Each structure stands twice: as structure tokens, then as C-alpha cells.
């Protein structure tokens, strides 16, 4: 995860000054991502590995249907 975070930070740094960010969208998205990471950490310590995989798969299927319907 540290490598992913460093990669994302370097990508952001590379785009700063070259792309106009919509900060009112970026900041809440980043904050909710951080909340999701913390909630995931708590869930991982309280829910079995298999149940987490099932929940994640269910979420991906729902998201895929949403994208298909909306797209």
C-alpha cells in the first residue's frame, strides 16, 4: 500500500500546474477514501477473510450494474 500511495502522490505532483483540478470534488473524494480505508481496517479485524471477499465481490457486481444502467 505504501508503494501505491507513493505512486499516486508522484502522479498528483506531476499533474499539478498542468491540469485544473476541481478541488471541491477532489477534497471530499480524498477524505471519503481515507474514511473508507479506516473502516476497512476495522472490518478486516472483525470479519472473516472469506466474508470480506464476498462483500467486495457483491459491491463490484452492484457497481458494474450501476455503470451499465447509467452509461
Distance between the termini: 31 Å
Uncertain stretches of 5 or more adjacent residues? none
Q: What structural class is derived from the secondary structure elements?
A: mainly alpha
Q: Count every helix, treating DSSP H or I runs of 4 or more residues as helices.
A: 3
Oligomer: single chain
Shape summary: extended
Range of strand content: under 5%
What summary fits the major beta sheet? none
How many strand segments? 0
Cα-based radius of gyration, to the nearest Å: 16 Å
The helix/strand series, from N terminus to C terminus, equals HHH
Q: State the share of residues found in helices, binned by percent.
A: over 70%
The averaged pLDDT comes out at: 91
Description of the structure:
With 71 residues, the protein is mostly helical. The protein is 85% helix and 0% strand. It contains 3 helices and no strands. It is extended and about 45 Å long.
Descriptive terms for the model:
mainly alpha; 71 residues
Short description:
The protein is an all-alpha fold and 71 residues long.
Secondary-structure blueprint:
Blueprint (H helix, E strand, L loop, with lengths): L1 H14 L7 H24 L2 H22 L1
Amino acid at each position: 500500500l505504501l508503494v501505491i500511495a507513493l505512486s499516486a502522490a508522484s502522479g498528483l505532483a506531476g499533474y499539478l500546474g498542468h491540469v485544473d483540478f476541481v478541488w471541491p470534488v477532489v477534497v471530499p473524494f480524498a477524505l471519503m477514501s481515507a474514511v473508507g480505508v479506516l473502516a476497512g481496517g476495522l472490518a478486516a479485524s472483525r470479519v472473516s477473510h472469506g466474508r470480506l471477499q464476498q462483500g467486495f465481490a457483491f459491491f463490484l457486481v452492484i457497481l458494474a450494474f450501476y455503470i451499465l444502467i447509467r452509461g
